[in-house]
């Protein structure tokens, strides 16, 4: 299953991290920054490690010592969270598509949230030298990248001999599919772009 994003940092963690990064970027010692800011070294360490909540006055003094505007300290805290989807190796959702029963395995590497689907990405594995292959036709553009193995791929009336490292891009509405498996196992990355449909 897809891995969820890490939980958002608490404000204390975020502020401590920003202060520590700024101090280390300038190669400043904890003791020196604490002394000039008028706080103990222990307190600065606790602030950097999010073990205490500190006052705005203390934060303001630390920003002055580090030559950093206070606004910069907070500037990225309330940015919208990223909306990336991480699928760890081998954890793509196995799905059934034409050809599944003939020794082909399809792992969906992405899923769209909401009703609109712009693209789909599959890791296709073929480990059986069966000569029966499904033919596909769908809207949009398809991109194939052969990671492992060797095959002949049909698009319309054309045949394309593909070896590991080769890519093929084509109109998905023209009937297409594997024609011959030359060397198995085959691992094929398939990305279908549906555009704005």
TrEMBL record:
GO cellular component, one term: cytosol
Keyword Nucleus: no
Gene3D superfamilies recorded: Jelly Rolls, lambda repressor-like DNA-binding domains
InterPro entries: Cro/C1-type_HTH, Cupin_2, Lambda_DNA-bd_dom_sf, RmlC-like_jellyroll, RmlC_Cupin_sf, TransReg_Diox_bact_type
Keywords, alphabetical: DNA-binding
Keyword DNA-binding: yes
Top-level taxonomic group: Bacteria
Entry GO MF terms: DNA binding; DNA-binding transcription factor activity
CDD domains named in the record: cupin_XRE_C, HTH_XRE
UniProt-listed SMART domains: HTH_XRE
Annotated ranges, domain HTH cro/C1-type: 19-73
Protein name: Helix-turn-helix domain-containing protein
Native source species: Pseudomonas plecoglossicida
């Amino acid at each position: 299953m897809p891995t969820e994003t890490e939980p958002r940092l608490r404000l204390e963690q975020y502020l401590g991290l920003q202060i520590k990064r700024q101090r280390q970027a300038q190669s400043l010692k904890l003791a020196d920054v604490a002394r000039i800011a008028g706080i103990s070294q222990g307190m600065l360490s606790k602030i950097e490690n999010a073990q205490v909540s500190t006052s705005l006055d203390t934060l303001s003094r630390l920003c002055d010592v580090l030559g950093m505007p206070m606004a910069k300290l907070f500037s990225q805290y309330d940015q919208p969270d990223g909306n990336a989807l991480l699928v760890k190796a081998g954890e793509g959702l196995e799905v059934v598509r034409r050809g599944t029963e003939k020794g082909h395995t399809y792992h969906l590497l992405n899923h769209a949230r909401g009703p609109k689907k712009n693209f789909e990405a599959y890791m296709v594995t073929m480990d059986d030298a069966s000569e029966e292959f499904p033919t596909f036709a769908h809207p949009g553009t398809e991109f194939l990248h052969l990671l492992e193995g060797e095959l002949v791929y049909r698009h319309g009336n054309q045949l394309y001999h593909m070896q590991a490292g080769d890519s093929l891009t084509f109109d998905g509405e023209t009937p297409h599919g594997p024609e011959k498996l030359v060397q198995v196992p085959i691992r094929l990355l398939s990305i279908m772009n549906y555009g704005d449909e």
